[in-house]
Write a structure and sequence with these properties.
Layout (H helix, E strand, L loop, with lengths): L4 H6 L1 H16 L4 H15 L3 H9 L5 H7 L5 H13 L3 E6 L5 E6 L1 H22 L1
Antiparallel strand pairs: 1-2
């Protein structure tokens, strides 16, 4: 049975869809460059292990071995690669102390802490969906 336009507009699905459309319109036009930057940012933040490594830093990991212990399942080689990438992106700061042997410590930068804060609602959203 086909619904009339009035019936479709009154249905709960249509009401939710209309509300979502209105929220998207409030965001306004997103230009192409901003869209590409958003895409690359989401891909970087979502790259396997990046969020777990940042979270380990927020929870107190500082030395390579502490990150390795906090992020279960990651290889030493991949951890080293991801730490270099996060340092290059400015999300983690690398501190070298000239001792014997050399001491290297990693701490989340202000931007890294901000990214973890921004990912928190996404984590909550994922937990809500998993509970369904």
């Amino acid at each position: 049975m086909r619904m009339t336009l009035d019936e479709r507009i009154q249905s709960p699905d249509s009401t939710e869809r209309l509300a979502r459309t209105e929220r998207l319109e409030e965001l306004g036009h997103i230009d192409e460059a901003a869209c590409r930057r958003f895409q690359s940012t989401v891909e970087f933040a979502g790259r396997k292990w990046n969020a777990a490594i940042l979270l380990a830093g927020v929870r107190g990991a500082r030395r390579f071995s502490e990150y390795r212990s906090a992020v279960t399942g990651i290889s030493d080689r991949l951890l080293a690669t991801r730490l270099r990438e996060l340092v290059a992106e400015g999300l983690i700061e690398r501190h070298v102390r000239a001792t014997t042997p050399v001491t290297i410590r990693y701490t989340p930068s202000t931007d890294g802490l901000r990214l973890i804060e921004l990912l928190q609602p996404l984590t909550e959203w994922g937990l809500e969906r998993a509970a369904r």
